[in-house]
Amino acid sequence: MGKRYHCEFCDKSFRNNAASIKKHQSSLHHDRARQEHYAQFKDPEVILREESQKKSCTRFMSGECQFGVMCRFSHYSPAQLHAMQMQVFEEKRRKTEEPSLASWLQKRSTKRAQVSEPENDVSTVAFSPPPSISCIPNLPPSLQPVLIKDFANYQPQSWGS
Q: Where is each C3H1-type domain found (predicted)?
């Protein structure tokens, strides 16, 4: 049967030879699928810049536009463009606004409180098994909880002794 090439954009597979791949990649269907894929990851600022220059698509509003992302008219309503403009404005303001020292210290202290662990407590569990295992009696040593105190008096030995 031979090897087959699968196009991730179009979700189609066909013979893996140069002519077939070139024909597929130059097709309108592939170009549209590729543009739709990359349109998902566009930055709102770029979308706003591109769409605000276009006129509104009357066919899209009535549900008849067949061009999708390749349409030369905008598929966004004025309300959607305004909401996107506000989102872009908020992102820019958030990036340029410097946090106050008090808010920075507050965030830092909450992060440190979440991350910090008791250091002096030797009975702290270093590893705890899943709850479904902990109720089973007579667990093998490899599944029993490991306590830090178990390593407090550990003396490494040389190999082979």
A: 51-78
DSSP secondary structure code for residue 151 in this structure: G
Average pLDDT of the residues of the chain: 82
Cα 156 to Cα 55, 146, 159, 160, 161, distances in angstroms: 75, 18, 9, 12, 11
At residue 73, the pLDDT reads 92
82 is written with which tokens?
């305004």
Say which residues have a Cβ less than 8 Å from residue 133's Cβ, sequence separation at least 6. Answer: 139, 143
Residues 6+ apart with CB under 8 A from 57: 65, 71, 73, 74, 75
Is the model more confident about 79 or about 160? 79
Encoded tokens for 1 = 């049967």
Q: Which two tokens stand for residue 90?
A: 């908020």
Confidence of residue 125 (pLDDT cuts 50, 70, 90): low
CA dist., res. 100 & res. 85, Å (int): 26
CB 65 within 8 A of CB 71: yes
Q: Where are the alpha helices (DSSP H) in the chain?
A: 18-25, 28-39, 44-52, 58-61, 78-96, 101-115, 131-134
Beta bridge partners of residue 4, listed in sequence order? 15
